[in-house]
Structure formats: structure tokens, C-alpha cells
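Q: Sequence in, structure out?
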Amino acid sequence: HQRRGAPAEAVPLYERVLAIQRAHLGADHPAQATTLINLGDARRALEGPDAALPLYTQALELRLRTLGETHPLTLRLYNDLGRVHMQRGAFDKAREAHERALALCARAFGEEHTEYALALKEVAALEHRQGRMAEALALYTRVLALQERLVGTAASTTLKTRQDRADVLLAMGRAREAIGELESVLARREADGGPRQGRLVPT
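A: Exactly. Output:
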């Protein structure tokens, strides 16, 4: 995805790349999906999520035709599309996209897989965004247990999930538990060579 530089400058460049790809590679070349996503990212930064939605939708349709619905790139695009819908406030459509990705991940990889954990975390984030804190906490707890088994307690993805879980606990008024989660993150980072942080609250 486009992450750096001025989106206003990126848009015409991505549009030119897309035109060249269509002219020389054909309408269904899978490289176009990446360009559509990059163009969508740039347009979202400039104009908001409504401008990105048709581009993400085109990219998803292309990946479904060329890669199939259970390819990891297709699954991640369902989640990208869900985030665009969430940013638009279209929570029903966001849920549909994220739950579709989750069901496809379960079918393709099973529930003990990193792709499944990532898809489950997207559903947790949606629950969090909608203020459904009990549901978000239960899902983040499942994701955390999966990631600890699959990639370990020190992996950056695991530590980020622990931080997300702490955010939910704090929103639920469970500050002491949230602090405990964050201290676990700090302790792990310190053990891996990061700076000493001290305790967040006195013992």
C-alpha cells in the first residue's frame, strides 16, 4: 500500500500505472489489484473513504477472479475493505467483510493459524469501535491466546494485541487490569533489550 509521499502526487502516478497495466497486461492481470489498492489508499488520504471504496471493490473482484477467495491476499483485502466501511461508519458492511474473511480463513487454514488470528482481531477491533466492550474483550483474549501459541509471547503482533486488550479493559473501567497488561508489554520489551521503564503504578 502507498504509505509515504504526498497523496496528491501519488494519485496521477497510480492512475498512469493502472492505464499501462490495462493496456499491456490485459484486464485481469493480478498486478492491477495492488495498483488499485494503492490508488485507493491515496484517494482515501485525500478525499476520505468514500473515494477509496470503489477501488477496493474492484481490487477484490479482480483477486477473486485471479487468485480465488481463500488466497491470503484476497483474505487480507476483505479486511481492508472492512476497515474502509468502518471508517465510513457503515458498520453492517464492515462486519460482513470481516466475518467473511474470518469464515474463509477457518475453511482454508483452520482456527490454529496466524491468518485466522489476524482475521479474528479485525472482528475484535470492529466490536471495540462500536463500543461493544465485553464482546471485544472476549475476542481480543482469544486472539492473544492464539498468537501466544503460534508466534510466541514476545512477537510484536502479540504485544500489540495485549495493548489493544488493555485499551478495552481501560474503557470498561478496569484500570488495574489494563495497567497489568501494559506492564507485561513493558517487561517483555525490556527483556528484549529495550529501555527500562519502571512500574506504571506503585506497588
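The chain has nine helices and no strands.
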